[in-house]
Design a protein that fits this description.
- By secondary structure, this protein is an alpha/beta fold.
- The protein has 4 domains: about 110 residues, Carbon monoxide dehydrogenase alpha subunit. Chain M, domain 1 (Helicase, Ruva Protein, domain 3), CATH 1.10.8.190; about 220 residues, Rossmann fold (3-Layer(aba) Sandwich); about 160 residues, Bifunctional carbon monoxide dehydrogenase/acetyl-coa synthase(codh/acs), Chain M, domain 3 (2-Layer Sandwich); about 230 residues, Bifunctional carbon monoxide dehydrogenase/acetyl-coa synthase(codh/acs), Chain M, domain 5, CATH 3.40.1470.10.
- Helix content is about 35%, strand content about 15%.
- It has 22 helices and 25 strands.
- The strands form 7 sheets. Strands 5-4-3-6-7-8 form a 6-stranded parallel beta sheet, sandwiched between helices.
- Strand 4, helix 7 and strand 5 form a beta-alpha-beta unit.
- Helix 8 packs across helix 9 and helix 12 packs across helix 14.
- About 0% of the residues have low confidence.
- Iron/sulfur cluster binds next to strand 18.
């Protein structure tokens, strides 16, 4: 450990802890000890303090012991004649710094100073955007990541689509370099957090000036323009450990080890590194996150003592390369190597950038060159299995006029027909592959894809069209990705794009016949009809004791893995996360116990779970990791259950919001009366069948009622109460148990007449 780094980190820590203490004292005097403190939309209190100290801070007073702890962790500056390594002191200082920084942010929230505002800034596509720029010309930056977004990213983090995160602190050499760095990270689907400045100028300013969209949807999250706001990145890391690792607040060592082992993250320090940056970096090193600086600083390389700490110096102008853009690319490359981030990039031969980071991109009407589907036209996509000789691999045809024939911001009908052949291809995999079209197409920068089947809706932006993006590129994307991602079942793929109106009509008819046939086949598939179910252990990288059991009538709780998806995934990767389980002897058909399933539950949960009931919430319900689309929870007073969806941020009759409930439902533990589920499981005849089925639902987020209206109507009819959905309350009519009970009485909900649920 370098004495230079130790000195600067310790000095930085001393200063920031005193600053935090002064700020807290001032707030206590001005606002009073009982003043509430919280970050918005999180169940994890102040996450880093909660994770490392186990304290659930909810008032200013609660911060007093936190600061006391931070003070204890401080050390005097190393004397100039000492030669011993300063590792312990430096790491302590890092933790003291983080505690102080989170305290400062909490107090800033009390004063309404967070999230930070910036002139002319607009945060793209955020759930929590309370206002737009205009009022005073300043939009707010992101602030801490909310629980809903953390869980939404969870599935991408676990299935490897998102390999990790980069916390960038400071300001790049030029705007051009700033853009290049984030583009290189986006291309690899690495989540990007931005903070800090050098002499008042931040990479956030640089990206803003270059018109780069920042927000959850683009994987670029601007926290704030000072170093302190980098604390939100470490709060995110802490919550990952609590959310997916099943850890409890206060398990400091485990939280740090979890991050070191499972969260692939690094800090990229751009520009001069001051004392506070050294101190904050020392905190990041405790999490196992290396720090790469683009300036000259002393390095800390792994040695016997300092096995995991890393500080790498890569002075920007000395990086070999023909120009700054090449140097920026090499810098990113180096960061990835140092942390060992696993990255897979599929080269897709199209004229615009490509990667999952562009999946959430929105093409607004004004920026649009042309659209297919939506209000004024129709688009459909149809993937079918074809005979070996019927498919010419890589053949891409456009049948009909090109987009150049459509006026600016115009629309046209289009159909995408994909033929695939493969020795291991099965008819059952058609819908699995077809659904991927959404993700594949969306990966192109400047292309937006919504929906599927004959309700697809695709937009191409002007910028993409100007770069030459055209209809045939849909084919290039699909061909490349089908081979890259599904090479085990797809040997050959050809794509035909139809825009010629009679051809579109003809193929639409064929596609619809196929959709219908699939619907019938899927609806007819019962748990009883198959000899085996599938496990999904994809989330074990984050929730080590969780296993999803996926059956024809029970989709995985993330909603992303159906029985057929698992079956296809097993074909693609026979030693992967989806394994067939022979159901074995049926123990109880009502509750859904099988010998084979119990055995798997024991094995995969490392002994934490002994029995699993597929069809009950009251007895041995399936565990959850953290990715669930909805939470089902018993409301004892109403003899029924409520279902709250991830999109719903309002209060529920259980007295908790989704994000608070999620803390109880996740982590791989069995909690009778609480269950995380995929939303389509609600419509299954097996949904809590042992407890009375769908008729037990007394409250449901309006989002679900509306977005699944047709499917729920069918369920109501099946259950013999055709107007059942109208008798289910939602957040618009009841957010307490009393309101709910009264409303149910008034509307004669059937659960009130059912036998006691327990
Ligand atoms: Fe995770 Fe379960 Fe979804 Fe698999 S099915 S990805 S284990 S939530
Ligand atoms: Zn999960």
């Amino acid at each position: 450990m370098s004495r230079y780094i130790a000195t600067r980190a310790i000095r930085g820590a001393n200063l920031i802890v005193q600053e935090a203490q002064a700020l807290l004292d001032k707030a206590l005097a001005e606002k009073g000890p009982q003043t509430p403190v919280a970050f918005p939309n999180t169940a994890y209190y102040l996450p880093l303090i909660n994770g490392l100290l186990g304290q659930e801070v909810s008032t200013l007073e609660g911060l007093v012991p936190v600061m006391a702890r931070a003070q204890e962790l401080l050390h005097p500056l190393p004397a100039s004649h000492r030669w011993t390594p300063y590792l312990g002191e430096t790491l302590d200082s890092g933790i003291a710094t983080l505690l102080a920084e989170e305290t400062i942010m909490a107090v800033r929230y009390v004063y309404g100073e967070q999230p930070e505002r910036m002139p002319g800034f607009h945060l793209a596509g955020s759930f929590t955007s309370p206002d737009e720029p205009g009022k005073n010309g300043a939009g707010h930056l992101n602030g801490p990541i909310d629980d809903v977004q953390l869980r939404a990213w969870g599935i991408q983090l676990v299935d490897g689509r998102m390999p990790g995160f980069a916390a960038i602190v400071g300001c790049a050499k030029s705007n051009e370099v700033a853009v290049k760095i984030v583009r290189e990270l986006q291309r690899r689907n690495i989540l990007i957090f931005l903070a800090g400045n050098v002499n008042g100028r931040s990479i956030i300013h640089q990206l803003q000036e270059e018109g780069v969209e920042m927000g959850y949807d683009t994987y670029i999250v601007p926290f704030g323009t000072d170093t302190i706001s980098a604390i939100y990145a470490l709060g995110f890391a802490t919550r990952s450990a609590l959310t997916f690792g099943g850890l409890k607040g206060g398990q400091a060592r485990e939280v740090l080890l979890y991050n070191r082992a499972r969260v692939f993250a690094f800090v990229l320090a751009l520009g001069e590194v001051d004392d506070l940056k050294y101190a904050t970096a020392a905190g990041a090193i405790s999490y196992g996150f290396p720090v790469i600086a683009d300036t000259i600083i002393p390095q800390i390389l792994p040695t016997g003592v300092t096995q995991y700490e890393h500080v790498i110096s890569m002075p920007f102008d000395q990086i070999p390369g023909a120009n700054d853009l090449e140097r920026a690319e090499k810098l990113v490359q180096k960061c990835i190597e140092v942390r060992g981030v696993k990255v897979r990039v599929t080269e897709v031969p199209i004229p615009v950038p490509y990667g999952s980071a562009f999946e959430g991109e929105v093409v607004r009407k004004n920026d649009m060159r042309v659209e297919f589907g939506g209000k004024y036209s129709r688009a459909f996509e149809y993937l079918r299995m074809a005979g070996w000789d019927e498919v010419e691999d890589g053949k891409i045809q456009v049948v009909g006029p090109d987009i150049s024939t459509v006026p600016e911001q115009g629309h046209m009908d289009m159909g995408i027909v994909v033929d695939v052949a493969g020795r291991k291809m099965q008819k059952d995999f058609e819908p699995v592959l077809e659904r991927q079209i959404h993700y594949f197409v969306n990966g192109a920068s400047g292309v937006q894809h919504i929906g599927q089947r004959d309700i697809a809706w695709i937009r191409i932006s002007k910028a993409a069209a100007e770069k030459g993006f055209n209809l045939r590129h849909f084919g290039d994307i699909l061909h490349a990705r089908l081979h890259a991602d599904f090479g085990a079942i797809v040997d050959k793929a050809q794509v035909t794009i139809y825009t010629d109106p009679p051809k579109v009509a003809e193929w639409l008819e064929r596609a619809r016949a196929a959709y219908n046939e699939r619907n019938v086949r899927m609806a007819g598939m019962k748990d009883e009809d198959v000899p085996e179910f599938y496990t999904c252990t994809l989330c074990q990288s984050f929730a080590p004791t969780h296993v999803c059991i996926v059956s024809p009538e029970r989709v995985g709780l993330c909603g992303a893995y159906s029985f057929l998806d698992c079956k296809a995934s097993y074909e693609i990767n026979p030693t992967g996360p989806n394994q067939p389980i022979v159901k074995g002897r049926l123990i109880d058909p009502e509750k859904g116990y099988w010998e084979g399933l119990n055995a798997v539950a024991v094995k995969n949960s490392q002994g934490k779970v002994n029995d699993v009931a597929m069809y009950s919430i009251m007895e041995n319900p399936m565990t959850a990791c953290g990715c669930f689309e909805c939470i089902v929870m018993l409301i004892p007073e109403t003899n029924g259950v409520m279902v709250v969806s991830r999109e719903d941020t309002s209060m529920t009759p259980a007295g908790m919001t989704f994000s608070t409930l999620a803390g109880m439902a996740g982590g791989g533990l069995q909690t009778p009366g609480v269950m995380g589920v995929g939303k389509y499981f609600l419509t299954s005849p097996k949904f809590i069948k042992a407890d009375g089925g769908f008729k037990r639902v007394v409250w449901m987020s309006s989002f679900l009622k509306e977005s699944m209206a047709d499917a729920l109507k069918e369920v109501a009819e099946r259950e013999g109460v055709p107007d059942l959905v109208d008798r289910i309350a939602d957040e618009r009519v009841a957010t307490t148990v009393d309101e709910l009970s009264a409303w149910l009485e008034e509307h004669g909900h059937p659960a009130l007449m059912m036998p006691p649920i327990f």
